[in-house]
Structures are given as C-alpha cells and as structure tokens.
Write a structure and sequence with these properties.
The strands form three sheets. This protein has a six-stranded antiparallel sheet. A two-stranded antiparallel sheet has the order 1-2. The chain is 46% helix and 14% strand. A hairpin with an 8-residue loop joins strand 6 and strand 7. The two termini are 81 Å apart. The longest helix is centred in the C-terminal third of the chain and has 69 residues. It has a domain of 153 residues. Helix 7 runs antiparallel to helix 9, helix 7 runs antiparallel to helix 11 and helix 10 packs across helix 13. It is of the alpha+beta class and 687 residues long.
Length: 687
Amino acid sequence: MVRPAQRWICLLTAAVMALPGCKSGGPTLPFQSADSSHPVSVPSGIDVDEPNFENEDPFLLAATAEPLKIGDDQEPVYWDLTLEQAIQMSMANAKVMRDLGGQILRNPLTTRTTSDPAITETDPRFGVDAALSQFDATLSSSAVFQKNDQAVNNVFLGGGTRILQQDLQIFQTQISKRAATGAEFTVRNNTIYDANNSPGNLFYSTWNTNIETVVRQPLLQGGGVDYNRIYGPNGIPGLPSGVLLGRINTDVSVADFELGVRNFVSDVENAYWDLYFAYRDLDAKVQARDAALETWRNVAERVKAGRGDAQSEAQVREQYFRFQEEVQNSLTGRLIEGTRSNSGAQGGTFRATGGVHVAERRLRLMIGAPISDGRLIRPSDEPQMAPVAFEWSMSLAESLARRPELRRQKWLIKRHELEILGSKNLLLPRLDAIGLYRWRGFGKDLMDQSTQNENGIFNNAWGNLLGGGFQEWQLGMEFSVPLGLRKGHVTVRNAELLVARERALLAEQERNVVLELSNAVADVDRAYAVMQTNYSRRKAAQLYLAEVQERSSRDEEESKALQTLMLELEAQRRLAESETQFFKTLVEYELAVKNVHFEKGSLLEYNGVALAESAWPNKAYNDALVRIRLSRPASDHAVDALAPAQIVSEGPAPQRFGPGPALPAFVSPVEAISPTVPPAPASDSRR
C-alpha cells in the first residue's frame, strides 16, 4: 500500500523524468507499452559530443603510411641519420617537449612547450605586464543628468520656494596615476550645470566648474618603492602581485623550460642510441642464426649419409629456431619501455629492450618525423670508444652552479625573501598624507558666448576659473591601525617559514645533485672497463667458435663428432651473447658520458643546443646602462664592452673525441628474416 505522501513523491519523480532533456541514469530496460506488441527502451548513458573547432594537422597524421612489419619482404629504403641531424630536426619540429613515457596523454598539463615562458610573462594576474599595469595612468569620465520637481516643507530648503523645479547636470573627468612610491596623483575637473526656480538666484541657470589636484602619499604602510615593486599597489597579504615577483615568475618558467628542453634532448639521444643497439643486436642474432643454420645443414647431410642420428639433428634444429625467434623479436621489437630520462639515472639508464622497428618509431616520434613513411632510419654515427676523463672538482662546481633545478629553487627562495621584505611593511600602521589644491570658477555660461561682459567676473565659469580669483587648498593626515596587527604578523611568519622550507629543499637538492654526479662519473669508468672486458670476451668467443668448427671438420668418429657438435652449439650461443653484450656496454659507455653532461648542466652545449630570450625593449637597456654608470666612480663614465663568456662546459681534460674504430656494417632487416631453411632430413619420416 502506497501512502499519500509517497504517492506524491512518486508522481513528482515521474513528472521530472518526463521533462524534455532528462534521462534516466540507470540501464536500458525494455518494458511493454500500452500496445504490448511494441517494446519500448529507456535510453541511458551520456552523449559523447565533439567540440566544433578547426583542427590542424601539422604532421600530416591522416596520411601516415602503414608501419613496417615482420612479413615485409621488400628491401627498405634506408634513411641514414646522424645524431646531430636528429637533434636539429627535433629542435626544429618541437613546439612540445616530447617524452618517451606517454606523459603527453596521461597528464598534458605537466608537459613543457615553447609557449610556457611567454604564457607566464603575459599572465593577466601575476605576469610582468599585469604588475606594471597597476602603475598605468587611468582616465575616467562620467556624466549625470537629473530633472527634479518636488515640493518642500521648508521654504529655506527650497531656496525661497516651496515648489522646486530643477535641471541638474554633473560632469566629471579625471586622470589618476600611481607612483612607485605608493603615492596616488589625481587631476580632476568637476562641472555642474544648475537651472532652478529659486527666487534668490542671481541667474536662473549657472555653471560651476573647478580643477583640483589631489595627492595621497602613504608614509608608513603601503609606502616605499620596495613594497610597491614587491607587493604592488593592489597586492593583498599572502598574495603579492608586484613587478619584481612577476619577473621572478618568468625566470622560474624559463628554468622549467630549460628543464624540458634538456630532458627532451636527452631523450632524443637515448632514442638514437637505442636504435643503434637494436641494429647491432639484430646483427648478432642474425650471425648466430646463420651459423646455426649452417650447422643444421651439415648435420642434416650427415644424417642423410648415415653418419648421424636424429637426436643431434633435432637439437641443432631447436637452436636454429631459438635464434630465429630472437631475430624476429630483434627486428620488430616488443612494446617494452625504452631508455628515457628520469628512469634509473636522471639522464636515463640504458635499457637493452625493443627492436629495430619499435626503436625506429620512437626516434621518429622524438624528432618530429612522420611515424611511418616507407623508409627506415639507420644511425650513421658510432659510439665513442676512447677514454673520457672528467676533472671532479670542476665538474662538481659546474653542477652546483648550472643545474636548472637548483637555479629554479634559488629563484623561489629569492621570491620568498622578497615577500618577507614586503610583508614587514604590513606591520606598520596606515598613515597617509593628503593634499588638495582647487581652482574654482562660477558663471552664467560655461564659456564666453558674447562680446559684452555684462555680468562682470561671473560672465562665464571658465573665464572666472582662469582668472584665479577663487582658490582653495587642503592638507591632512589619515591614520588607521588594526589593534594587534595579527594579519601582518602571520603574513611575515608565513613568508619566513616558506623561506626556511625552500632553503631546506635546496640543500637536499644539492645533495642529490652531488649523489647523481658521483654516480654518473663513476659509471663512466665502470662502462669503459666493462666495455673493454666484453671486447676481450667477444674476441675469445670468436676464437673459441673457430677452434670448435675446425675440430668438428676433422672429427670422423661418431662419438667425437657428437661431442664436438655440442661444443659448437654452445660456442655459437656464447658468441651471440658476447656480441650483444659488447654493443650493449658500448652504448652504455656513450650514454654514461652523456649522463655526466646531464648531471653537471652542460648537456645542451654538449649537443650544440643554445637557448635565447627575445630582445628586451630599448628602455630596459638604457636603464641598465644608467645603473652601470651609477655603480661606478664619478670619474669613470665609460661603459666597457662586455667580454664574451668563457665556455664552462669543458674542463682541462678533453671531453669530446672522434669516432672509434670502424665497426661492422648493419645487416639488412630483409636478409635477417629470410634465411634459406634446409629441407627436412629423412630422419623426420622415421620419427
């Protein structure tokens, strides 16, 4: 049984759900209508709408070619690319600082772009121009027209009449300007037209006009150049908006932009050497696969000749297909995370994963090239093999001075120190000095409209004003103070705590910089030593395989031949592993050198990348020259030319070397996946 109140609630709910545009949030439920033969469905879900705007396609994504696949049997067209060319292309095509971790899709707001510093500087709330706009002169004007028709009880209030009829017009125009000291200057003109029926009037209609200048100068709170450049005239406690802080915000944004560019360049280099290793890894796998194939053929011939068994042939065949699987994975690659910045080490710890096709598409993403265009990028640079030495004391000083993370943190500390300086002004009471000077004019007309001066000095208001007969002035002081100044004290305390916090963060950041630099410098020596070891291992594996193959060709006895075959299979695996490990440590050494430059803040110079801001207004340069002159002795008025800055990214130890010894050429991917497989031996039919 439904109670009356519940019945009304049910009816109201049904009426609301029946309104146009309302939908049920539940699932779609079929039910029978009045005509039971026609089921009705209740719609559910949300409408997925697309915004209507003009979508640009700078990379011609709609025309992207089909990606290269493992089954392609056509020889690819190679695009030989140097690391320098890759970085140049990435810089030319980078409006967004791309990364290899998919951050642009997961959290695009944290992705750096080339527009970020300009967006910060033009912020209408806290940007430099927004802060300067608080000191702009303001022109304002108003005009008010009134028609008054009223009865008054007191004849004196009506100007001698009990029925007051009046036409009143009030005009006001002023220009006000805020100075850097906090003073406010105002020049104002007030003009009033008054026409009424008061019998005591000299004229039925008159004009009153005056020009007044007003100055208000804060003497304590709100006064001073420092306070107004830090907090700004409109700043409030805890939310300063001065021009100095606006400039610091821009400097912080520039440091963030440099961070984004540095990580971007690091990721481009990581992707380049990932692709290089993918080719070398493919080469090693192809060589091992081809050696296993040749061994399989030899064993198959022995089985056909009755000098071998099916077990040996099956074992060789299994090794061949194992290497074939590795070749296929090395060619196309699996979707495993590659080397990127802030993964392990700050500059990225080398991850020997992926394959040629996957690594090539990642490099295309980073340099801004089409993801697929029928060509295959092939690195033409070789990793360096010469020893690189970094002078520790110079590298340490360079990292503490040039790391953009530390510079950004120092700007934040400077910002809060300025906030402390500005907040201390809020501990003062408000004491303003006020001055006013006014010239008055009164007349029958606003301006002289006749040649006869029949009304004397009151012929027109402007003539009376310019005559200077009526002048007024006013001086005064205004004082106010909140008892206890609680808000001022808490603002100063908050700024002091922020400075202490940021200084503690800076100290920990510097410790982490030293730690990361120590790891990077030590990793250079480790990578170089391991590379030499793996080079020797590779040579030993080659000699071992050659010896085993020579012994296998001499063995005629079945038992010895079988034993030598097992040794040959093991030698092939060892050689493949040593080849891969050698090139892996070779790339690790190259990236270790790069990571040292990353840690000491010289990565951009190391890769030939320079950042520059646009030119400042001429007024800024003139002001800078004036300040330079003022900071020098009075007898020295010349401004010497600034000497070019010395290169600080290179110490006394050489840090750049030419290419190392020539390495074997890459194996064609088509040749890698199309070996000639021998026919199945007769032993298969017996099994």
